[in-house]
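Folding Task

Wanted — backbone structure
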Amino acid sequence: MKRPLLLLPLALAACAPMMMAPNASTADGLFLQAATGSNLFEIQAAQVALSKTGSDPVRAFAQHMVNDHTTAQNQVAALATRKGVPLPKMLPPELQLKLNALSGLSGAAFDTAYAREMVLSHQLTVSLLQNEQAAGKDADVVALANQQLPIITQHLTEAQALPGAATPASSTP
């Protein structure tokens, strides 16, 4: 009796490519979904930073992230709607865990963790955009990646300049 229930997720996963719109390849649709997760994380982490930080550079960076990633997500959502690609409304579980961890910090510990997370997150997003540029099939989705890559690369540079962003070098006697 339990076996059919265990097979249900596999059946749904097999149908996922068919649920994508005919205008977007599965890989392009997955890119739009991943970009959404990234944007949602950047926005929500920045909102936490705005409420927790006492650092002017962190506050300015966080506000910049809210503004730019909201704009980026609006562009992703508009394209996904045109392509018939469903987007997640919530953070993926692994990003929610990171957000929860950040939310539990305060003071300098928060600022350092936020700065380091922004570096890592933007490095991953740069890779995501570069992969779409190289392997994307849908011209509109590739164009979106081309448009957003310089912005995200600039965010990475800005994140690397935040106080505490650099991982301390290990000292060996």
Summary: The chain has six helices and no strands. Residues 107-135 form the longest helix (29 residues). The chain has one domain: 22-160.
